[in-house]
Design brief:
By secondary structure, the protein is an alpha/beta fold. The protein has 20 helices and 15 strands. The strands form three sheets. It has a five-stranded mixed beta sheet with strand order 1-5-4-3-2, sandwiched between helices.
């Protein structure tokens, strides 16, 4: 993971960059402690925390980190001498806020580092998830373990209250407020139920309004998500989003407890959709009923050409956002990425389940927060989990058509069946030049556009001319220049298909 990613996640509350002679894209592989009383034990790519070494005493440790090709070193008090030493050693220098505890910083920094599977695939980290939750709720998010230690938090331009500030610094909030939470039974509720808890503001203590939810694995509590209201009220869907967020966060906390780990739930969905795993096995793993209806929804970004890394970041953010919505809708929902698309399995549905509203809500939210176009195709609801590949194939057909020539954000096959069929025929024409009429390929753009308008208007010259904003005689003149027998219905059919392909 790059140093830039870690700095963005940790942000100003904890550290501030002083120098970065090799830029911010250097890889950070681990977080280690450097103590002046011990021999340096640092390796390439390490973020070294210089504990107990201040001023000139830190100089030899910085030089040792540079010789080992560490990515960065962190100190409590920076100075011009330390910055120059770091620059000469080719290692980034971070200054840690005086009130930050080293152990807390080490824990958070390690939490930012993304876990990878044996084949190199990257798992989402808790900081990215916290940012997604903040986007959906409109608030300021902290994810904590059962001991109320902050594991990750969202970035915010809003004013944070004293409780949030102290929590990020690894310190307890005001005791009168914590006592009140205990007396209200807030902590008991978070540990024992999935209920979203509302906590009123306490201006006299500098505490703003909050909502919170417990994170669980079955009946076992894993932690909690807290959302502080910022300068604006929380969104209307904040509580529902928070419920889904808790379900998505649970596997992340389990992964942290059980390293090494793999993309288990994502792989379950991929195995089911490709037929490598039977429905009963998958259902048993996610707590779903294989005999109940299910459906697949497929999402794709349409952000055009651009920086690949930026596209991948947007796609990861979109997948996180989709996961939260899907988990709020169905606890047993599965989400996975494949081939640049995000697949969602929604099991345990009612036979007449209406998924369009859910899908439109996700697309609208994604477009608003990612500032890019998102399209989604909803597969039909099938009778049992065994048949979800039918739903997936249907959704893929619709999304393929949307990518080629269908201007829609959300669609089902029933909505756009004719457009999908024509789009698939046009794809065959595109791939097989030998079955095309060369005379139509040879038409210049003006004649091609005029002929297609005429054919779409079923031969009504005036209607086609109005669509083209030309005089009917102008259109008649253009049609006479085209070397095709337009009285032949087969010629018209081939021309219309081929021109649509253009």
């Amino acid at each position: 993971m790059s140093l830039r990613h870690i700095l963005i996640a940790l942000g100003d509350p904890l550290v501030e960059l002083q120098v970065a002679p090799n830029g911010l894209e250097v890889d950070v592989r681990d977080v280690v402690i450097m103590d002046p009383d011990d021999p340096p034990d640092v390796a390439a790519g390490d973020l070294a925390l210089l504990i107990g070494a201040r001023g000139r005493a830190a100089l030899p440790l910085i030089r040792a980190a540079g010789r080992a090709k560490a990515a960065a070193v962190a100190v409590k008090e920076s100075s011009q001498a330390l910055e120059q030493a770091a620059t000469d050693a080719g290692v980034a220098l971070l200054e840690v806020r005086p009130e930050v505890r080293w152990g807390h910083l080490e824990s958070l920094a390690k939490g930012v580092l993304t876990t990878t599977t044996d084949d190199g695939e990257v798992l989402g980290d808790l900081f990215a998830l916290a940012q997604t939750i903040a986007t959906l709720t409109g608030g300021i998010v902290s994810i904590e373990d059962t001991a109320s230690r902050v594991l990750a938090y969202s970035r915010s331009s809003d004013e944070v209250d004293e409780l949030r500030r102290l929590s990020i610094l690894g310190r307890q909030g005001p005791e009168p407020y914590l006592k009140m939470l205990r007396e209200w039974g807030v902590y008991n509720l978070l540990r024992s139920s999935e209920e979203v808890v509302r906590i009123d503001e306490r201006p006299e203590l500098g505490i703003r309004r909050r909502i919170a939810v417990g994170i669980h694995a079955g009946t076992q509590p894993l932690g909690a998500i807290w959302v502080q209201e910022g300068d604006q009220p929380l969104t209307e869907q904040a509580e529902r989003a928070l419920l889904g967020a808790a379900r998505v966060t649970a596997p992340h906390l389990i992964q942290q407890r059980n390293q090494p780990t793999s993309r288990f739930r994502e792989n379950l969905l991929a195995a089911l959709l490709t037929g490598r795993m039977d429905a009963a096995t998958v259902a048993g793993q996610i707590g779903a009923d294989p005999k109940k209806p299910a459906a697949v929804v497929v999402f794709a970004l349409r952000d055009g050409e651009g920086d690949r890394s930026e596209h991948e970041l947007r796609r990861a953010e979109m997948t996180g956002l989709i996961s939260v919505h899907a988990a709020a809708y169905r606890r047993s929902a599965l989400v996975s990425e494949s081939g640049g698309r995000t697949y969602v399995l929604l099991p345990d549905l009612a036979p007449n389940a209406q998924l369009l509203n859910l899908t439109r809500e996700i697309v609208t939210t994604a477009r608003r927060h990612l500032h890019t176009n998102v399209q989604a195709a909803v597969g039909s609801t099938v009778s049992t989990l065994d048949e979800v590949r039918i739903s997936r194939q249907e959704a893929e057909r619709v999304l393929d058509a949307m990518a080629r020539d269908l201007d829609a954000e959300v669609a089902t096959l029933a909505d756009v069946r004719s457009q999908v069929l024509v789009s698939e025929i046009l794809a065959l024409l595109q791939d097989n030049p030998r079955i095309r009429d060369p005379r139509i390929d040879a038409l210049d753009p003006e004649l091609a556009k005029s002929l297609l308008a005429y054919l779409d208007a079923l031969g009504d010259v005036r209607a086609a001319a109005d669509r083209l904003h030309v005089h009917p005689n102008t259109l008649r003149y253009r049609l006479k220049r085209i070397d095709l027998d337009l009285d032949d219905p087969l010629v018209r059919l081939v021309a219309q298909l081929q021109l649509r392909m253009r």
